[in-house]
């Protein structure tokens, strides 16, 4: 069986997902596309065969030839499409963020709980990266003891001038926040923002680098360094200090080259290169689960938690104080999916 997927929003990541659904993965095809920029939708569809173009996302979701929906439009538009997907009883893959406000995420959680089954997966692709999965497996095995501290660094070579410090917390740190919750298996209860010496490479309005501290409910402390103008490449680092050992991401270069008395490897140029395989694995697992009539991966609850924590991070930035993170009680629907997105535990 082939899963007919409809894609809402065919910008940068929407087109990348269409490429993998069409040329890389098995079991799915793109059946329909839409974009507020209809000309863009038409030009993307022109490269594919038998794809319907819809004028609106709502129309695409109602299309009976669409079995499942990918939402890859701008963040503030996610809520209405995810809610419509749930209403239609269709599985939805939503790029992060699930929604841009806590209230919108709660409406999605409520709708899914009312539907009585999981219909939404959020695109936190790091959970599908071989390195992070190996870290998680090491922690689950327990052979280095309980985690104590997680150091995470997210470094971009450069960012467009439109990026703001709020945006660094919402769009950049959000991946570190999700992977921290997943790796140490605990919720965030408090956050603080620290401002190191500013890089001369950063635009004047930006705090770059910044350090976001997360206090987890189980006592683990997480420091997230976000540096967005490092120039040398896209570098994702992570190390967990545990009671009797450490586990850290290896360098992502598959080979080391030695020549003329030196050794080195490639630093990825951007997130697409660094996480290309993670996106493929993420989508293949989603396709397989949807086809089997089940659900998998980061849930609406994970999307809600991430948005609540990024809100608190922005509050901590504004006030210069610790911001407490308070979440509603987790609905039972999500408790059975603890550890979702890991290898073998969901
Ligand atoms: N997982 C990741 O690492 C990752 C990476 C990049 C982007 N994203 C997320 O993916 C989403 C899209 O990002 P992008 O970089 O592709 O942006 P983009 O601007 O390149 O593309 C977004 C597309 O959505 C369209 N669009 C906007 N509003 C719409 C609406 N109401 N209905 C239909 N189409 C609409 C735009 O016209 C555009 O073509 C964002 O939420 C972003 O945060 C996630």
Give the percentage of residues in beta strands.
Answer: 15-25%
Shape: globular
Main sheet properties? 7 strands, mixed
Instruction: Estimate the mean pLDDT confidence.
Output: 95
Give a list of the ligands: nicotinamide-adenine-dinucleotide
Distance between the termini: 23 Å
Give the helix level as a range of percent: 25-40%
Q: Give the spatial strand order of the biggest sheet.
A: 12-11-7-10-9-8-15
Uncertain regions: pLDDT < 50 for 5+ in a row? Answer: 337-346
- How large, in whole angstroms, is the Cα Rg? 20 Å
Number of helices: 11
Total strand segments: 15
Helix and strand run: EHEHEHEHEHEHEHEEEEEEEHHHEH
Which structural class matches the secondary elements? alpha/beta
What is the strand and helix layout of this fold?
Layout: E1 3-8, H1 12-24, E2 28-34, H2 38-46, E3 52-54, H3 57-62, E4 68-71, H4 78-87, E5 91-94, H5 102-115, E6 120-122, H6 130-141, E7 147-155, H7 165-184, E8 188-194, E9 210-216, E10 221-227, E11 235-242, E12 245-248, E13 257-259, E14 262-264, H8 271-274, H9 276-291, H10 300-319, E15 323-324, H11 332-335
Helix pairs in contact: 4-5, 5-10, 6-7, 7-10
The chain binds nicotinamide-adenine-dinucleotide.
Can you describe this structure?
The chain is α/β, with parallel strands linked by helices and 346 residues long. The chain contains eleven helices and 15 strands. The chain has helices at 12-24, 38-46, 57-62, 78-87, 102-115, 130-141, 165-184, 271-274, 276-291, 300-319, 332-335, and strands at residues 3-8, 28-34, 52-54, 68-71, 91-94, 120-122, 147-155, 188-194, 210-216, 221-227, 235-242, 245-248, 257-259, 262-264, 323-324. The strands form three sheets. It has a seven-stranded mixed β-sheet. A six-stranded parallel β-sheet has the order 3-2-1-4-5-6, with helices on both faces. Helix 4 runs parallel beside helix 5, helix 5 packs antiparallel against helix 10 and helix 7 crosses helix 10 (300-319). It is globular and about 55 Å long. It starts with a strand and ends in an 11-residue tail after the last helix. Residues 337-346 have low confidence and may be disordered. The protein binds nicotinamide-adenine-dinucleotide.
């Amino acid at each position: 069986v082939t899963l007919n997927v409809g894609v809402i929003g065919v910008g940068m990541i929407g087109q990348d997902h269409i490429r993998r659904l069409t040329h890389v993965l098995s079991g799915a095809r793109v059946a329909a596309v839409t974009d507020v920029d209809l000309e863009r939708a038409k030009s993307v569809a022109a490269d594919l065969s038998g794809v319907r173009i819809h004028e609106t996302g709502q129309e695409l979701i109602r299309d009976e030839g669409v079995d499942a929906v990918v939402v890859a439009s701008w963040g503030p538009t996610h809520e209405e499409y995810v809610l419509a997907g749930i209403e239609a009883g269709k599985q939805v893959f939503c790029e992060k963020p699930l929604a841009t406000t806590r209230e919108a995420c709660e409406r999605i959680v409520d709708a899914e709980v009312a539907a009585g089954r999981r219909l939404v997966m959020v695109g936190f692709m790091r959970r599908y990266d071989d390195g992070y999965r190996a870290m998680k497996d090491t922690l689950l095995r327990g052979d280095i003891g309980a985690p104590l501290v997680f150091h995470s660094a997210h470094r971009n070579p450069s960012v467009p001038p439109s990026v703001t410090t709020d945006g660094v917390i919402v769009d950049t740190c959000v991946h570190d926040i999700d992977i921290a919750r997943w790796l140490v298996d605990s919720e965030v209860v408090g956050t603080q923002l620290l401002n190191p010496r500013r890089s001369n490479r950063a635009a004047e309005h930006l705090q770059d680098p910044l350090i976001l501290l997360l206090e987890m409910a189980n006592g683990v402390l997480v420091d997230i360094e976000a540096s967005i103008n490092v120039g040398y490449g896209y570098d994702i680092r992570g190390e967990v200090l545990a009671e009797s050992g450490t586990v850290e991401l290896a360098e992502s270069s598959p080979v080391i080259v030695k020549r003329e008395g030196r050794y080195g490897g490639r630093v990825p140029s951007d997130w697409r290169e660094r996480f290309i395989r993670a996106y493929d694995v993420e989508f293949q697992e989603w396709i397989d689960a949807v086809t089997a009539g089940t659900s998998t991966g980061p849930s609406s609850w994970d999307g809600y938690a991430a948005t609540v924590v990024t809100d608190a991070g922005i509050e901590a930035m504004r006030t210069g104080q610790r911001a407490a993170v308070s979440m509603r009680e987790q609905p039972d629907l999500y408790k059975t999916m603890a550890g979702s997105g890991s290898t073998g535990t969901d």
